[in-house]
Specification:
The chain is built from 2 helices and 15 strands. It has 289 residues and is mainly β. Strands 2, 3, 4, 6, 7, 13 and 15 form a 7-stranded antiparallel beta sheet that branches. Strands 1, 5, 8, 11, 12 and 14 form a 6-stranded mixed beta sheet that branches. It is globular, with a radius of gyration of 20 Å.
Amino acid sequence: MDTRFWNLVRVGGILGLAIGAFATSSVAGNICDLRTSASCDPTFLGSAGGSAVFMTDEQHPTGTGYIDSFVRVQQNGWEQGYNTSARPLETDVQMKVDPNFTRNLTLGEVGTKVINGVTYREFFLDVNEPAATNGGKNWITLDQLEIYQSNTGSLNDYSGTANTANGSLAGGGTSTKIYDLDAAGDNYIQLDYLVKGNGSGSSDMVFYLADSLFTNKNPNSYVYLFSQFGDLSLVKNNDHYESQAGFEEWFTKSSIPPVNIQSVPEPASLLLLGTGLAFVARRRARRDA
């Protein structure tokens, strides 16, 4: 974590950071550029000044078997989707249908982090783009990001217009939108697959959202995250980047297992234990996604 960022927050508060820190960051206009900046808190991004913080992040390892994603989207070019356990999926979304990767999410599953006295909810993002830097194929743009709350699970009817704040989520129930990246205009996040951990096996971004925005504190209430990536129809000065390869997935920190978990001895190890030759515990091999 960029300690300088949080030192500024402690001294001047998040709203003060909007005036001071941005002058020296790579955030310009309505762009949050996480290809070159470790963090940005654009108060113009979202429904309330300072309520959302975006940072590069490395959770390791990631990938199938290590994290429990709640929504995974994939399509070359542009892609969009939201988490739900409803099946079949509606048209014009590109979520993975496997319930292991796209499912309902409760508030109780979303971790919290207190930073300088402010409680945030944590959402982690792992992007999967080509490792080749030729032509910026390792870059991708997060064009839309919306958070909803509902007492109903498995909502399945999203509607909205590209890069506007009028999106809604229904289908068998009602929901309340508590955050919209585009509430104050067309805003977007630029991401680099290689910015952390050389790409494979590491997460890329953490999105902190102020807990105060979650008006329903029932841990069994449902949280929905809608995101859209790589829409080149929104190109401004060639600063949007489409999806080139794999999936993008969101997960919560609570789904990452503790590191250095002792593995169950394999049969060969049991034989060695019987002969008194194996006294060193074997650590589970960590594999990349």
